[in-house]
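ingest -> fold -> write
write: protein_1
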Amino acid sequence: MTARHLVTSALPYANGPIHLGHLAGAYLNADIWVRYKRATGAEVLFVCGTDEHGAPILVNAEREGLDPASYTDRWHAAIRRSFELLDVRFDVFSRTSRPDPHHGLTQRVFLALLERGYVFSQEADQLFCDACKRGLPDRFAVGTCPRCEYPEARGDECPRCAAAFDAVDLVAPRCKSCGSAAARRPSTHWYLDLPKLRPLLEPWLATKRATWRPNVLGEVDKFLRELKPKPITRDLPWGVPVPLPEAKDKVFYVWFDAPLGYVSATIELCRARGLPEDAWRTWWQDAGTRLVHFIGKDNIAFHTVIFPAMLLGSGEPWALPDVPANEFLNLEGRKFSTSGGWFITVDELVERYPPDALRWTLTRSAPETRDAEFTFKDLQTRVNSELLGTFGNLASRVLKFVRSRYDGRIPGPGAALGEPEQAALAALRAGVEGATAELEAFSTRGAAARVLEVGYAANKLIEARQPFKVIKDDPAQAATTIHVACRLLEGLAVLLAPFVPSTAARLWAQLGLEGAPSDRRWAEAAAPGDPSGRPVGALDQHLFQRIEDHQVEAEVASLHAKARPPVSETTETASTPAPAPAPAAAPSPAPAAAGGAPQGKPTITYEQFAALDLRIARVVAAKPLPKADKLLELELELAGGERRTVLSGIRAWYAPEALVGRQVVYLANLAPRKIRGVESAGMVLAANDADGSAVLLLAERAVPDGAPVS
């Protein structure tokens, strides 16, 4: 078995917060596996960092009036903090924006590929903005989608139909920054010749077909069928500079430099430890190292085909990876969407729930071979039934009994082990063996299930023997059962440590053990030592607290409150007029006509419609109206700083803080009405979804406050 493991997680993009979908895809499973491997005695290096180049970062930094370095500084710190909050511990968490060593390494690999004939240059058209005097790669260009004709498609993808394309394929393209029409200009760029690298790549890939997951192999085969040269460079002022005189003002595509961030992070760590300059090569270019990439579905092609091709083509003896990629995690029935508000950040959840509750729930629903789902109901079930019901209550019952009936010292066995005790200890041994097999196959989800089975077996022992009842009539048997139960709890603490490290450490202390469960070797969990006479620790803190129904309901309501409808549901084409919005003050489902179609209202003339003064207004403040369960008091800002107060019956669906900053559709010339002493000047507009919930009508993209709606 390989004793040295280099483990990486996909570099998170420094352009927004880490949410639960990211954690389930590439980070939590890696952290668990690293902790397990270290418990077996293996030498492990866990490497990560933020991916900090590319057009999206430049676009968003520009939108916020920041330079890209300051913008990525902020997100690097925020992402690092999120990982720390959830107890994901990297040995190094670096950044791809650091010139030394990252830029130099990227340039060296590029020049090696160029020298060996695996990179070529070619002239191609690109979009250019004469007003801004710069090229317009993907996110800097907008226009009409060539497939569905959505008028606000990005230069790399249409948010309505999800079609992917190059910016030059847009119809009527324009500059995202200034709105000017974009021109086509020729530009020379460099390409990685993937077809030429195929003879190096395919023999190595053949060695992985027996061990890689079917979902990984499917993505590999799909990418190989469509293998073609891939552009390496682009005209952009933010990134790793291309080290050629003829490539002035060009940088590498973020996909090219980002995976090399694993290597540069390792170099950085070795330097920080005061090791020789070439010490990093032990991890990256020694035959005794096993490289493992933990990634999500969207990164499979890059880590199984493109990055290995780059390494093979450079001519150096690089370690090549195993790739246990996960599929996608959905949230309450929908895909995670940061732009659509359908996501939950790590930071906000850790404010309300212990990190281990989230770690366990995400592990138990990990999307290892197919898409999975996180729901607050599932969180409640995992915590109440498994963490609390199976592990927490077991520890509490057994150890409190030790405290009350055995003077706080674990009793020795008073009688020979019977069948129930033997069966429970056998279940512990089987659990260690089963969890080991699952983890060696990279299934943290499967391993957690095996650990849970040990918990079930320990509870079964207590239920079968009833030591709390039989102690009066058969104290020897009760002592034996409690003795075995304490051994089982010790084994469970070791097994749980990779999954719920804080909880395992507390259980360890409650058992009266010194150090931490991670100090023990993994295999020792199968046969804990004799605890007879050992005093138990403090029992003043329960391992877990119940999650109540009202908490689940509040979480789901809050999620819906901050969500924005996807583009495909809110954007109408010019030939399809939008239906008249329903007032938010009365969010009740419309009655249905025969055949299920909604009933309409009497026809009005254009003049009657034109009499409605509809504006875009920004919510600058929001709060509940006292003694009014349904109403929120909103302060809206129109053109020139004019402000209006509006009452809206959306309190059941929108948290006040989630509304601040949003642009809503506002009926400005509705006669004022006083409600509970507050004058409401107008109305914000909303529709009702299928279950009658209010859904605010929002501006699809930023427009001037007070802009008329027609």
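write: protein_2
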Amino acid sequence: MYGKERSKKWICSLLTGWLLVTGTPTMGEAVEVTGSYDSRVYISRLDKYNTLRVYHVEGEYGVPYVSAQEYLYLLYDGHVAFQSDEGGRVFTASRNHVGVEFDVEKGKLTCKDWDAFFGSYGDRALPNGILLPQEFNAQAVSRKNPSRETAAKGFDIDLQAYGLSMTTHEGKLLLPFAVLQNVFAVPSGANILSFNGDHFYDISQPVIGYIYGHSLNPYIKQNPYANAYYSGKFSKEKEIPPAYARYAYGTTCLLFDLYYGHKAEKGIESFDQYFEQNGLKEGLLSTDARDNSDAFLDVVYKLFDSGHDSVQLSHSVFDTGSYINTAKVITAYGGIEPTIKALQKLSYKVADKGVNFLNGETGTYEQYQAACKELQLDPILLTYIFRDDSGKPFKYWLEQAQEYAKIRGTKEENIELDPRVERMQSKDTDRLFKAKSHIESLKPDDFGSSRVDIIDDTAFIYFERFSESGKEDSFYYRMPDETVYDASSFGLFYDAFAKIQQSPKVKKVVIDLSNNGGGHAGALTAILGFLSPDGEVNLSYFHTLNQNYCSEWYHVDTNLDGKFDDHDGFGGQYDFYILTSGFSYSCANALPFFAQTGGLAKIIGEQPGGGDCVVTPFLDAYGHVANMSGWKKLGRMTEGKFTSDEHSVKVDYPFGDQADNLYFNYKGIAEWLSQK
């Protein structure tokens, strides 16, 4: 479930376990500043920029230290106050009458209530609540039911435990940039900046929009912004500086220790220990950019292992050839498929010329050049294979060539690439993809992605994603119809009930989530409002960072009369059923959970797939970008015990052996329900 979008405001102007690394100052020891410069901060464009001063520190080559005062002032649009003790060794940043204390001597950050410090963006039920202000279209904070939360426990961060430090310089409190971004920007979705050795770039859209996921994605294209980002100082490094590798590793452990929502289930006390136990610490500390990036993929797709955990950008800022050269070739060849076919043909031709890839031979540039000429292939293809001045093919290409050689049947055989393979490496993600594939195999070709059907006394509402258009407020003067079904779940349900109300014989309403993988929280609350007898909606979750329970109440104006009153909602007017499958994930798991615990609907079909945590976007110090299961775990607190919605839904009427014959068979389901 996606609870918030990345902020573009940055934004207005612009724990346990010692890490066994060297080069980090001991507790209380001040690091020495050796120089500084004004670094540029680019937000989605190259023609305008802001500045953030970067400080060089002795013994930490490449690590950008910045002023906490300057960074937080920019991040919070000036709404933060700093003060220090007389000795200038303890600083306090204050917002909303809550402080974060920075103890330079002890290397610790302390906050008693992170949500309260972070504060509210607009009119929310609670500070940092589930819904963003822009999602309050036809929705409002409930006036009938008060939202509540239990007392927060706050947190302490010991930077020494992560091999990290802070220091002072000319009255400024200096910390490594990723520490500040990971601690303070993640909750607002403002963690968008990546450092390329010279400057900071917002890579949340201008880069990710063209390089989504793995390096063989069909959407990869050249663009000036990405070229500038990948052409910084780090692009000249032959390997990752060891001090930078330690910094990146420490800040990654800090990030996950703070915000990863499934620590308790996996028995994780610290990610440093977890990475070491699972054999990934060495790779994450590697100074080889390719090995480092491969380890990052393993973290997200093997260790995290859920449908909420995914990689958007796997290119390291140190592995610049991976982007620039690949983009050049794919742009020239007109897409990923023709590029792959050309690489296959080339590898076969070079193999025929005597280069034995399976025995580890690499071949010479001249051999590849001659093969290109014989095949009449654009020689720009060679820039993908030869990426530096070594004169040798790069490691990743040789691994690909070996794979081509292993499965080669004929010279014209093509390798079929499945973009999901990267994710299908662990039990839970594999289960989810198999469930998706099975449901898709049952879906009729002409079924569509959203629809409303009425069969006898039963209405069916089918949709494949919980969607918000951001324009739901326009429904007050442009009533929703079938044209908005895919863009707005609120619009879909409004129009569906308009049709249902015109059919007096309808007694039952089935909400079909069998092929729905989730979506946005605002769409979830909207749909719950239609199931509610009075438009009132209650979402509740456990906040793993603050260690407190939050119960939020909203109201949905389901009849679009501009009044948030008891005339909203259809609960009690129809018998509601929610149809789920093993693929019903995230919001498609939360809807049946909250509907069932609230007595709003019966669940039919099969056990939904899970997905209890609100998704948290993040990036690391290398510019890898991904999503993870975040710190808000949906569920209910009963008699002091919290139950996650992960696998808590109990199917009231299982399909059993009839499942394959009933999914997408609405006439069959209507007859089946008539017997219940």
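write: annotation protein_2
Residues 242-259 form the longest helix (18 residues).
The radius of gyration is 27 Å.
pipeline exit 0
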